[in-house]
Each structure stands twice: as structure tokens, then as C-alpha cells.
Amino acid sequence: MAAIQTNSGLPQTDQPRYHFDIYAILEAPQELYFGHETQVNVNMVETVKIATDDDVIEKCYISPTKRRGVERRSLIWAPLPSSGILLGDKLGCGIPHTCAQPDCPICAVYGGLITSTTEVDVLGKKESRKATTTIGRLVHGGGVAIQPIEASEKQRAMHPSAIHRDDSSITPMPFKRQYNEPALLYPVYNHCMSVTEQEFQAVAYAFLDSLARLGAGNPKGVHIIEKSLFNVQQPLLVVDCYLAPLGKRPVISPAITQIETAVADFVSAATWVHGQTIATTTSTIERDKRTVFTRWLGNDALVKLQEYATGFVTTVLI
Ligand SMILES: [Zn+2]
After folding, report:
1. What per-residue confidence (pLDDT) applies to 277?
2. How far is the CA of 221 from the centre of ligand 1 (A)?
3. CA of 100 to the centre of ligand 1 (A)
């Protein structure tokens, strides 16, 4: 009788594992382009259709897969200060070749795939890598804009790289491109399953580092919007670390089109933990002398993510 594999294949660690969540509302301070497809010489942005009670509306969208791609690149291109190279070059891990090794700080959480034995060149050394699959334990959600403002279309010109050539090929090529309008708000969510705090460091680093780089082409970049939370301007940001999911998830319904409603819903869910309305920016719940749920809000959540991001720099990059 053939033996059935029952283990997950994930190596045991000496550090405890938890689930982690990040919830945030992002704002683009300028128009944003994330290419989706080209139609009749127009580079389109991605939109989604949403059925409301009496209508179907179209909204701009930063799809979770696009955000995931920018985050992975932020790790692959992270600078190693002592050697002048980038993390992905040191690991031999990039796009499209992901190394898929369980000890790779990128693939361990973002996942990786080698479909057949592949020879790679890592810092001048040849290395053979076997077919490997590592399933990501980080998932991305949200991204549907709150305001139902349709994308704008602008005329652009692809300018030549030469000033003079003896032919006509340096004529600027006109094309049209859609943009998400400025000031759109995008609620986004990252969830990590059964990761160690050290593994989560890469997630925190990538989430914060990618904010300035979300978008394709230029301009790009977003920030976490700030609103009043416990009478103080704070980022609309929640970080959970837990064994038991005891908080309400501050997920905004895509059917909501009013900023005030969306912010109120976010704050209401963010301040609800296991039946209690919390009034502090850090809350923990214990059972049998073990912390089973911790929620950080606003500035506390930002500082917590920054601590994990700094941990990534000191343990992986330096
Ligand atoms: Zn890797």
C-alpha cells in the first residue's frame, strides 16, 4: 500500500507561528496608472463593475495581484548596504525565476515555483535547482476604490531617444492612456497564514516600502490616509497578530461610495475586539497565559510595522 504524504512540507521552526493581518485605506495623491489591457490604441486601467441597490457602477481598482507584484519587487530589489548588490541578486531569486527555497525570505511568504530542473547563475556561480513548489502564505485583498469616479483618458506621446537621425523614425508616437483620478481611496488587506515573526518582517517591509512605488510608469505612489481616531489624527491602519481571529475585520464593502461611510465603517470594525469596543491603540487578549490576539491601531500599528520592517533590514539586508 502506498504511503500518503500527510505533512505540509513546511519545515518546523524554533519560533512560534501566528496569523497576521494588515488593513489600511490608501490614497493616491496624484493620478495613477496600472495597465490592464490596450484597446484601440488606449492603455486601459483595470476597473470593476459593482451592483448597488438600483444601479451598476464602475470603479477604479488596484488589483491585489498588481499590489503583490510591486511588493515582491520591493524585496527583490532591496539594497544590501555592505556589498552594493540587491537581495534578489544575492539569492538568485527574481522575476520570472523565483527560487522557491523555504529559507528564502521572499519565497517563504510570497511563494515560488520551479517547473523543471533549472541552471541558474548566482553571483557568478552556476547552481542547479530542482523542480520545486512553495505555496505563498501571504494573500492580498481589497483595492476597489471607494469613490465611483471613472478613469480619465489623456493623450501622451512616446518621445524618441535620439535627437537627430537620417530617417523619419524619431517622430514622437502619440498614444492614449487612462488614469485613475487623484484622491481616490483604496481599502487594501494583506493576510499571512502561519508565519513566524521573522517571516512577517519581509511582509511588513514590502508593504511599507511598496507604498511609494505602487503604480506602473509615472507618476506613482500612495500613502495611508489619516483620519481622527480617539480624537487624534492617525493613519487608518490596523495590524493583527493572532492565534484566534477575535477582531472584526475592517473590510469596506465595495458597494459603499461615500468616504464618510467608509471611514466610519473602518473605524467601527477596527475598534471592536471580542465583543468590546476598545479605546486604546494596542489591545491584547490572553487565554491560559498565552496571548491569543493582539490588535494595533493607527500610529501604534504604523510603529509596529516599522519595527518589523527594521527587523527585516537588520536580519536579512545588513
Ligand atoms: Zn526566493
Report:
1. 98
2. 25
3. 5
Residue 237 within any structural domain of the chain: yes
Instruction: Kindly give, in sequence order, each residue whose CB lies less than 8 Å from that of residue 272, ignoring residues fewer than 6 positions away.
Output: 247, 248, 278
Instruction: Look at residue 99 and tell me if it is in a domain.
Output: yes
Of 281, 91, 311, the C-alpha closest to 196 is 311
- C-beta of residue 98 within 8 angstroms of C-beta of residue 107: yes
Would you say residue 276 lies in a domain?
yes
Tens digits of residue pLDDT in 85-103: 999 999 999 999 999 998 9
Cα separation, 294 vs 305, in Å, equals 13
pLDDT of res. 160: 67
pLDDT score of 273: 98
Cα 67 from Cα 308, distance rounded (Å): 20
162 contacts 169 by C-beta, under 8 angstroms: no
* CA angle (200, 13, 197) in 5-degree steps: 20
User: Is 164 inside any structural domain?
Assistant: no
Pairing of strands 85-86, 290-297: unpaired
CA–centroid distance, 138 to ligand 1, in Å, is: 14
What confidence tens digit (pLDDT) does each residue in 182-214 have? 999 999 999 999 999 999 999 999 999 999 999
Domain total of the chain: 1
Q: Distance between CA 233 and CA 148 in Å, rounded?
A: 26
The Å distance, Cα 307 to ligand 1 centre, comes to: 23
Q: Structural domain of residue 223, as residue ranges?
A: 17-156+173-317
What pTM was computed for the model?
0.94
- Residues of the chain under the 50 pLDDT cut: none
φ and ψ at residue 247, rounded to 5 degrees: -100, 155
Residue 39 is predicted with a pLDDT of: 82
> How many C-beta atoms surround the C-beta of residue 193 within 10 A?
14
